[in-house]
Specification:
The structure holds 2 protein chains of 2 kinds. Chain A is about 65% helix and about 0% strand. By secondary structure, chain A is mainly α. In chain A, strands 1-2 form a two-stranded antiparallel sheet. Chain B is mainly α. In chain B, helix 3 crosses helix 5. Chain B is globular. The chains are: A mainly alpha, B mainly alpha.
Chain lengths: ~375, ~300
């Protein structure tokens, strides 16, 4: 056995302070330990890497099984109906439909909260994208490093602030401020034409769709801004300098050189931000007003899927038939499908059109 | 594109104005982000500071919702520690698999596409949906009740993809020469992984872990569905049906109480959370700065 060189076999000179040993039991044992260490690394790493996939399959399976009775009873009206709860309530007599036990007279229609989820997320994206791109420009192209680095860190800190704290600030500080100083101005001047009608008064107390959209926008700004900043700093300098040398203004350089270079990355980051906005819960419970109807105008309380899942917990625990729990599972399944779809689109855009990797995580 | 001369020439004045407008827009957008961020931070500090007592850290909450947040703070720290152990182990091992152990396919692309996709999808999964799965499967299904373990498992599922990704990325930045050198010296695979590869990727891995902890300590919605809502620490951590306290829940509920001291406590909890996140983020910055200073080949 010539498993290890050096001291074994033909070497005539003894290394100082070390005796020549034949292949002994201890050395065999050491080999076994080495081999088994490698095995341990390989197997434990394999198990660990399969766990996320297993968790994903488990989560979707659990939701699907749990939601099945609700899907059977609620039917397609779940996606189009706009009454949540119906006349019955949790204390009504229980009846059986299609073999599923549920309180009499229940009716669950999720259209208003599905629409509210999409509305608030779209407002968030409309607010966040231009602001993020502008801020990324200021950080990479304008400000010197000793200014832009701390400011960049401040944006990353914004990503780390717990959403319950941001929600509380939106509810107690931002919402009332906007409702007092900004919304009346928009509300009283918006013309009575199809789309802008939605912006007309009354403006409410600041707890509603527009405030929620702005708060959501602030929460996804760090994702989009820090990705955009990294993308901008990867744009080669020569084309930009060349464009400047041809006499282009800053805006023309940005419009004709920098932005086209990183467009796909920004789109990908935007869709990821959209995905996060769709799933945000606690801030939407606080700022959105947890209504179960469509907001009559952009300032009024509304509901999102995530906020409804959380705020209906008490109701679900009261319903003895378990039908409310099943319905919430159906709702969670709808949200999962929407956000996974959005996420897959983002990955597709990123991998198809650039070699840059997608930003990781939930924006922290 | 050779027809530029045929286009109407934009007047110099308009070009200059649009340039200035663009410049103003970039600064305005920076202000629109940093203004609210500063307003938020100053608001939290301004609400919490005037009535701040250090006893908030050491006293526990009374039934009249006065006193301190000792239980909530300990609860959050225990949850963070549990997530570090559980998600840290799984996530780092998963990252090692993706970067080091997964076989390379014949076309030169690394394998594990499905696993990586699952990880990506999971990282974009809404936390409330995971929380609800925890409620249905662990709290109700396994009869664990609202307690620490469902919360740890669900939070870990949330952050494992994140840790795996940062681990994989920092392992990929270890120069191949290190691995080849270790192999040439006759090191076993396990030894070289421990002593050479992981060691030089450690700063990146630790950064990822700290950011994952920042995510974990700020979550509310999935915890309400798994840890429940309690103001006292249970006697045993392993107990089923022992609801578990945490800071974010104090923020979420106390701000709305009629009792002024409870409202103060909500702001105290918010301040503690913000300071916690700030500490975590600052330490990642320090780690990154130190490793860049001592790195052999500095990147531009």
């Amino acid at each position: 056995v010539t498993s290890s060189g050096g001291s074994a076999g033909t070497a005539p000179v003894k290394p100082p302070g070390q005796s020549v040993r034949p292949v002994t039991l201890t050395r065999r044992l050491a080999d076994i330990v080495r081999a088994s260490e490698e095995g341990a690394w390989r197997w434990s790493a394999l198990v660990a890497v399969i766990l996320p996939l297993a968790a994903l399959v488990f989560a979707v399976t659990v939701l699907a099984i749990k939601a099945f009775p609700a899907i059977k009873v609620n039917g397609f009206g779940f996606l189009t109906g706009s009454v949540w709860g119906g006349k019955g309530g949790a204390y009504a007599a229980t009846v059986r439909t299609d073999g599923v036990l549920h309180p009499a007279g229940v009716e669950y229609g999720a259209w208003p909260i599905i629409a509210g989820t999409i509305q608030s997320s779209v407002i968030a994206v409309i607010f966040a994208v231009p602001v993020s791109i502008g801020a990324a420009f200021a950080l990479t192209e304008r400000l010197p490093g000793w200014v832009s680095r701390p400011l960049g860190f401040a944006i990353e800190l914004l990503a780390g602030i717990p959403s319950v704290v941001i929600g509380l600030w939106g509810l107690l500080a931002l919402g009332p401020f906007l409702a007092k100083h900004v919304y009346p101005f928009i509300g009283n001047h918006a013309p009575d034409v199809p789309v802008l009608r939605y912006f007309r008064s009354p403006v409410g107390e600041g707890e509603g769709l527009l405030t929620a959209g702005i708060v959501l926008g602030l929460m996804i700004v760090p994702i989009i801004a820090s990705t955009t900043r990294d993308l901008f700093s990867q744009v080669p300098t020569l084309p930009k300098e060349g464009a400047s040398a041809l006499g282009m203004t800053d805006w023309e350089v940005a419009q004709k050189v920098t932005l086209p270079w990183v467009r796909s990355g920004i789109i990908g980051a935007t869709v990821l931000g959209l995905g996060r906005a769709l799933g945000e819960t606690i801030a939407m419970v606080l700022v959105g007003g947890s209504a179960l109807r469509l907001a009559p105008n952009i300032y009024q309380p509304f509901g999102t899927i995530a906020a409804t899942i959380l705020s209906q917990l008490d109701g679900a625990m009261v319903d003895g038939t378990g039908f409310a729990v099943a319905t919430l599972a159906e709702l969670a399944l709808v949200l999962a499908v929407i956000s996974v779809g959005v996420n897959l689109v983002a990955r597709l855009i990123i991998t198809r059109s650039s070699r840059l990797s997608a930003p990781v995580g939930r924006g922290a | 594109m050779g027809t530029a001369g045929a286009r109407p020439i934009v007047s110099t004045r308009r070009r200059r104005v649009s340039g200035i407008a663009f410049r103003a827009f970039t600064y305005l957008s920076l202000l629109l982000i940093l203004g609210p961020a500063a307003w938020l931070l100053i608001g939290v500090v301004a609400h919490a500071w005037p009535h701040w007592h250090w006893s908030v850290l050491t006293e526990s909450l009374t039934t009249e919702q006065t006193g301190g947040l000792r239980n909530q703070i300990l609860g959050t720290l225990i949850i963070m520690l549990g997530v570090l152990l559980l998600a840290g182990t799984v996530g780092v091992l998963a990252g090692i698999h993706l970067a080091e152990l997964a076989r390379t396919r014949r076309n030169g692309k690394p394998s594990g596409g499905v696993l990586r996709l699952a990880s990506d999808i999971l990282s974009g999964f809404p936390s409330i949906v995971l929380g609800y799965v925890g409620y249905v499967a662990l709290v109700l299904g396994l009869h664990w009740g609202f307690s620490l373990f469902p919360a740890l498992i669900i939070l870990s599922i949330m952050v494992v993809p994140y840790i795996a990704k940062t681990t994989e990325n920092s392992l990929r930045q270890v120069p191949t020469g290190y691995r080849e050198g270790a192999e040439a010296l006759g090191m076993s695979m396990g030894y070289s992984l421990r002593k050479v590869v992981l060691k030089s990727a450690l700063p990146g891995i630790v950064t990822g872990l700290l950011l994952a902890l920042a995510i974990a300590c700020g979550e509310t919605a999935p915890l309400i569905y798994t840890a429940g809502f309690s103001n006292t620490l249970p006697h045993a951590l392993t107990g089923a049906h022992d609801q578990f306290p945490y800071l974010t829940y104090a923020v979420f509920t106390f701000y709305n109480e009629a009792n002024a001291q409870a409202v103060d406590l909500a702001y105290d909890a918010a301040l503690i959370l913000v300071v916690l996140v700030l500490l975590l983020l600052v330490s990642t910055r320090i780690i990154v700065a130190r490793t860049q200073r001592y790195a052999e080949g500095r990147r531009g």
